[in-house]
Amino acid sequence: MIDPQALVTDEELGALIGVGARHIRRMAEQGTLERVERGRFELGASIKALIDNAAGDGSELNKQRVRKLKAEADRVELELARARGEVALISEFEAVQVARNTLIRTRVMEVPRRVTLTLLGMKDETRFKQVLAEELRLALTAVATAELDVKPPIEIDGEDE
After folding, report:
1. C-alpha angle with apex 53: 47 to 58, nearest 5 degrees?
2. Of 42, 46, 68, 104, which has the fewest beta carbons less than 10 angstroms from its beta carbon?
3. Please, are residues 104 and 143 in contact by the beta-carbon 8 Å criterion?
4. Mean pLDDT score, 133-156
5. What is the percent of the chain with per-residue pLDDT over 90, rounded to a whole number?
6. What is the per-residue pLDDT across 103-120, written as a single tens digit (0 to 9) for each?
């Protein structure tokens, strides 16, 4: 029977899993494998660490490195998407929404002033509703086709607020 607590060299451990001693030493430097003595590894713990590493459950140090690399890749992708105009800051989106909502309110609130004389004294309910609906449609179409003049957020030290 194999003793899981037996100590093996980097060469022996490498031979067991089909890699060179240099690869085993590199994995130890990266924190995947733990040396118990100079150039020696506990067989059972090392095999478990190698299996965990192969399954993606490697050492905490490796997990942290993977998280860091992923975060850096995400940041670069986001910067690229922003440079292409595919994403916007929340503050930019909010500014556009405020401008759009203000324009909607203004246009809808102008409808009574524009249609009062036309509707005054009108007895035909169907025609009354048609005129009012058409005015509302015109107001909302004007909003939908309007070019909004929204100022970009102020940048400080090269970063957006």
Report:
1. 110
2. 68
3. yes
4. 83
5. 50
6. 999 999 999 999 999 899
Predicted pLDDT of residue 57: 60
Residue among 137, 39, 47 nearest 129 (CA): 137
CA distances (Å), origin 60, targets 4, 31, 43, 63: 22, 8, 20, 5
Cβ atoms within 10 Å, residue 129: 10
Q: Is 104 left (phi over 0), alpha (psi -120 to 50) or beta?
A: alpha
- The domain locations on the chain are 7-79, 90-154
Report d(CA 54, CA 41) in Å as an integer. Answer: 18
Contact 136, 112 (CB under 8 A): no
